[in-house]
Structure formats: structure tokens, C-alpha cells
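Long-time lurker, first post. I've been practising inverse folding by hand and with some scripts of my own, and I keep getting stuck on stretches where the C-alpha cells seem ambiguous. Below is the full C-alpha cell string for one chain I'm working on. Before anyone asks, I'm not after the true native sequence, just a reasonable design that respects the backbone. If someone could post their per-position residues I'd love to compare against what I wrote down in my notebook.
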């Protein structure tokens, strides 16, 4: 996927980068819709299973496959309700909003700078929260949830490309060399990020995977 396909330059962007409103290419709109849908699906499935678990403490979620890949252990943990309610309920709202923003872009919507900064801040919070959950899952809860992993990957890709979009349109200003490198190799941050998580999962339970 090329940078241009992900994020077309707005027609009203002036040479100094100042804009009244900023749009995006169809590729970026679809990326928001797809990553939002992936996160929403994961949140929906986890929420349904959480309700079933509350009704029947002996219920075993379908993604509890073995002692390591055990969604049930994740759902029963304190970290699964970090804000006093099940975490996936937050995902139902936020990922739904991302889908709506992506759909708006596909329909030709254009947003002001503060809107894009707000989206970037929300994506930063989301990826930060996912990183905390990843640590808790690997090193405190000692279990892995496949649906959670899908939401993690979707959030990482979403955050990376929202940031690329904002750097491209100078909503976020960075040195020109860094900007050029990020636009040319925009695929590297999400690939390396997800790859590192995969390696951590592999090494954390190496004895189990190889037994």
C-alpha cells in the first residue's frame, strides 16, 4: 500500500501547510473503517462472553483453547475492568466512533485541525491502554486472549496511520527529514511494533509452544 493510497493530499492545502479543513484519501478512510470494525468485533465478542460468564461462572469462552490462550482468565482478572466496567464496553463506543469517522471520510468529509489532533490523542490513549493490557496479560495475568490480540493489532495500525496522516498534512509538525522518512516508510512502525509483540508472546511461553 503506497502512502498516496493511504492518504491523499487535500486540495485546499496551502504551501505552508495551513488549512481550513483537511480531508483524506479513500485508502485512509477504508483503513479507519476496517481497523475500527476489527476492534468493534473483538469488543462485541468479549462483551457477550463476559455477560455469559457473569450469568454462569462455569462458562468457558470459545477462545479459551488451552492454559495460555485463555480468554476466561483474562475476563476474570481485575485488569479486565480497569475503569470499573468491562474494558470491551469502552471499545464498543470508541471503535464505533472510528468507523463513523472513516465512513465520513469515504463520503468526502473534511475536518478541522483540532478534530485531527483529537483523533490522534484518542488513538494515543487507545494504543497506550492496549500496551498496558499487553503487559498485564503477558506478565501478571499469564494468559492470552485472541480477541484482545485482534483489538491490539487494529489499534496499533490505526494509531500509526492517524499519526502518518497528521504528519503528512502538517497537523503535527516534525523535522522535514523525519517527515519524509515516515511518509516513505510508513509501513515500518506498525510492522515492527506488532512483530515485537509477537516475539514477546513467543518468548514468554516458549516452553509451552515448543512442548
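-- Answer (accepted) --
I ran through it position by position. Result:
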Amino acid at each position: 500500500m503506497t502512502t498516496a493510497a493511504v492518504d491523499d493530499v487535500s486540495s485546499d492545502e496551502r504551501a505552508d501547510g495551513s488549512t481550513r479543513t483537511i480531508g483524506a484519501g479513500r485508502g485512509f478512510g477504508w483503513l479507519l473503517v476496517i481497523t475500527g470494525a476489527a476492534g468493534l468485533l473483538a469488543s462485541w465478542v468479549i462483551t457477550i462472553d463476559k455477560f455469559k460468564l457473569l450469568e454462569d461462572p462455569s462458562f468457558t469462552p470459545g477462545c479459551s483453547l488451552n492454559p495460555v490462550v485463555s480468554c476466561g482468565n483474562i475476563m476474570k482478572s481485575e485488569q479486565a475492568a480497569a475503569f470499573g466496567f468491562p474494558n470491551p464496553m469502552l471499545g464498543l463506543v470508541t471503535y464505533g466512533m472510528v468507523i463513523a469517522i472513516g465512513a465520513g471520510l469515504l463520503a468526502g468529509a473534511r475536518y478541522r485541525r483540532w478534530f485531527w489532533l483529537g483523533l490522534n490523542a484518542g488513538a494515543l490513549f487507545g494504543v497506550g491502554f492496549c500496551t498496558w493490557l499487553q503487559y498485564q496479560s503477558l506478565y501478571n495475568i499469564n494468559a492470552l486472549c485472541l480477541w484482545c490480540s485482534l483489538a491490539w493489532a487494529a489499534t496499533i495500525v490505526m494509531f500509526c496511520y492517524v499519526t502518518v496522516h497528521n504528519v503528512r498534512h502538517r497537523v503535527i509538525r516534525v523535522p522535514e527529514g523525519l517527515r519524509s522518512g515516515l511518509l516513505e516508510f510508513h509501513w515500518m512502525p506498525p510492522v515492527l511494533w506488532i512483530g515485537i509483540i509477537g516475539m514477546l508472546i513467543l518468548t514468554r511461553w516458549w516452553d509451552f509452544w515448543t512442548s
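A couple of notes from the structure itself: The longest helix spans residues 26-55. Confidence is low (pLDDT under 50) at residues 1-19. Happy to go over any region you disagree with.
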